[in-house]
Amino acid sequence: MNQFFATCPRGLEALLVSELAEFGAKNIQPTDGGVAFGGDMLVCYQANLESRIATRILLQVGRGRYANEEDLYQAVFKLNWPQWFDVKRDFMVKVTGVKCPLKSLEFATLRIKDAICDRFRQAVDSRPYIDTKEPDVRVHAYLAAEDYQLYIDTSGNPLYQRGLRRASVEAPLRENLAAGIIRLSGWQSGTPLLDPMCGSGTFLLEAAMMALDIAPGSGRHFGFEKLKNFDAAGWDKLRQKVLGRAKPVSFQKIYGSDADLRAVRVSRENLKQAGLLDAVQLSHVDMTEVPAPAESGVLIANPPYGIRIGEDEALAALYPKMAEALKRRFSGWNTYFLTNDMRLPKLMRLSPSKRTPLFNGPLECRLFEIKMVAGSNRREKP
Q1: CATH superfamily label, 175-214+248-372
Q2: In the predicted structure, residue 296 carries a pLDDT above the cut 70
Q3: 231: which residues sit within 8 A by CB, 6+ positions away?
Q4: Domain ranges in the chain?
Q5: 52-66, pLDDT tens digit by residue?
Q6: Assigned CATH for 2-153
């Protein structure tokens, strides 16, 4: 049985655990920012193809203790790299250190690269080339205070790159974080879903793929296809089975709108490129004017963050207007707001029933759940 590590946005580890269990993973152990698990290569293929939450699936090829760069060189040199990939494949090494005693991670990276190349020279009298932009093979090293772990990346490009060619507006949300937020909301296919600040349409795309049972990786290639142990027949069979489950595209009660006409156009273009335009209804309307498309449902929004000077005041003025619109039109709806502005509930004068810490890249955010129960919202003071 192989050992793997699946990385994911911090805050979504529990969702990734339940996904991996569905794929038949064994010995599942969550940690901060990812989940370790065991399984055969078909479990790895399925996780790459079907996980909506993972960022990368890494195959462990070595682990042990070290004190300096020379220890790392010797440990890496001992591994049989030519059994994993061909000398004609170019590669890169990425080193991450936590409480790592080494003075320079760059020098550690160089020594690991040297060890891999020297091992190839010894075995086949030639060495693979380095490519830091679009390598065939990615090697990841994680260095703790005394322990190292070495992995080969089976994903290639990160899994949030769904292979749907995408235009975007400013600061798009990563697809796996969007999928995680939809899951955290408890939304089920068939229930109305509205994103009234849809931006480039990430929530809409992810929800449409969930509703139609479309695997997020069905339009792309993966790193494992370039490894020597690639089981092409097993992969093809798995892929056909998963692709065969996808439902024909039809309207899924998913609604998106934005005050910015350019954002609506970008969303439309992205949905069209993904073949999902017919699953979603789009409109150009301000969040404060948007009508509820049904008596109840789930509203998910990623309001703009006040990162630039002067935006804080504009946001402080926007939140009460948003709250008014919710009270007037969305009683009976569960609403979810992802923001790094912790003032949001206070300025909206609404009490969140949940505050889930999530990270959008390096930004610490909260997913606020606010249930709009008919008639029970706080009245404005006269």
Answers
A1: Vaccinia Virus protein VP39 (3.40.50.150)
A2: yes
A3: 41, 42, 45
A4: 2-153, 175-214+248-372
A5: 999 999 999 999 999
A6: 3.30.2130.30
